[in-house]
Amino acid sequence: MIPLVRIEAVKTNSWLSDEEFMELYAVASSLPGPISTNLAGYFGFRVAGPLGSLAALLGLTLPSGVAIVALGGLYAATKDSRLVQDALAGVRPVVIALLLGVAIAFAPKALQSLRGRAGWLLRATLVAAAFLVAAFTPAHPALLIVAGAVVGLVLRRAW
Amino acid sequence: MVTSIFELFFSFARVTLFGFGGGPSMIPLVRTEVVDVRGWLSPEAFLDAFAFGNALPGPIVTKLAIYVGHQVAGWPGAAAALLGATLPTLVLILLVAQLVMRAKDNGALQAAIAGIRPIVVALLLLVAWDFAPNALGNFTELATAWPRWVIAAASLYLTVRHDVHPVVLIIAGAGAGMILGLGA
């Protein structure tokens, strides 16, 4: 989706230059929240103030939002049927695979280190520790994220 | 209903305000809010919603927000959830973007994010781990549930190695489920 946002912002509408876009993208990637809506809202604001932001957000999110509600309605109406139950039973393993796939795609960036093997191992340990804490304590994920930020700040370039 | 509107706004605001790392980082947070904290969806219902979400274009969090919001409190709920998911972080980026772009040393921010990324991996793995019994059955059911393991393994291979689009895999899984009668 981000390449599409870039085409719209830089080529189609010339809201900002390519360099400015890449800088903004770097910032958006460092801040929390959905990157695409943050970018869209930001451009919207630059072009037409708060109303522009709202327009951009709705444009980005409403079409698929309406579609998912429609799909959900279909699901609710049919989910007790044997056929749909069969279909869902086949879809859920796929979802597990997609979740693992996302984790696997995300992992290289999470584990890369300037300190070679030692750094990699430290980060892998953090993954394991976080997993265990999240799995076996009632700690809220947000707390773990804060803890991770602290670890990152404390270790800085050491890992 | 009014309480729900506020809860939807705050829950999804929590999700996106802690979501460092784009879509993947927010999926576990949505699940925690929607299934554990608020109990709006059962674990299976969340898994299924995630499946629909993957089958459609658009940012995953906003799709889930609209879906859950609508389930809980109709279109006002959907609006509350969507605004919660998008406005706070948008305000943040509008306020802070200029500062961050001008700052010579983003070192602290980058260091913090480097520490958050491993947490995100762990949380994603945990979502998969928590859903595995629903999706793949317990170990005791292995004799009858093995086709689901095969579907999972094949899908994992296809998505990681060949970048097959999620929609294709979801449709294939649905087809396999129907043909094999896996819903027993």
Approximate helicity band of chain A? over 70%
Would you tell me the structural class of the helices and strands of chain B? mainly alpha
The averaged pLDDT of chain A comes out at 89
Let me know the average pLDDT of chain B: 90
H/E topology pattern of chain B: HHHHHHH
Instruction: Tell me the number of structural domains of chain A.
Output: 3
Shape of chain B: globular
Coarse structural class of chain A: mainly alpha
Largest interface (C-beta under 8 Å):
A-B, 88 and 106 residues
Largest sheet of chain B: none
Count of helix runs of chain A: 6
Q: What's the multimeric state?
A: heterodimer
| Radius of gyration of chain A, CA atoms, in whole angstroms | 21 Å
Write the layout of secondary structure elements.
The complex is a heterodimer of chains A (159) and B (184).
Chain A lengths: L1 H11 L5 H13 L4 H44 L3 H30 L4 H21 L4 H15 L4
Chain B lengths: L1 H16 L5 H15 L5 H13 L4 H43 L4 H30 L5 H21 L3 H15 L4
Helix pairs in contact in B: 1-2, 1-4, 2-4, 2-5, 3-4, 6-7
What does this structure look like?
- The complex is a heterodimer of chains A (159) and B (184).
- Chain A has helices at 2-12, 18-30, 35-78, 82-111, 116-136, 141-155.
- The model of chain A has no long low-confidence stretch (mean pLDDT 89).
- Chain A starts with a helix and ends with a helix.
- Chain A is flat.
- Chain A contains 6 helices and no strands.
- With 159 residues, chain A is mainly α.
- With 184 residues, chain B is mostly helical.
- Chain B folds into 2 domains: 2-132, no CATH class; 137-184, no CATH class.
- Helices cover 83% and strands 0% of the residues of chain B.
- Chain B is globular, with a radius of gyration of 19 Å.
- Chain B starts with a helix and ends with a helix.
- The interface between A and B is large, with 88 and 106 residues.
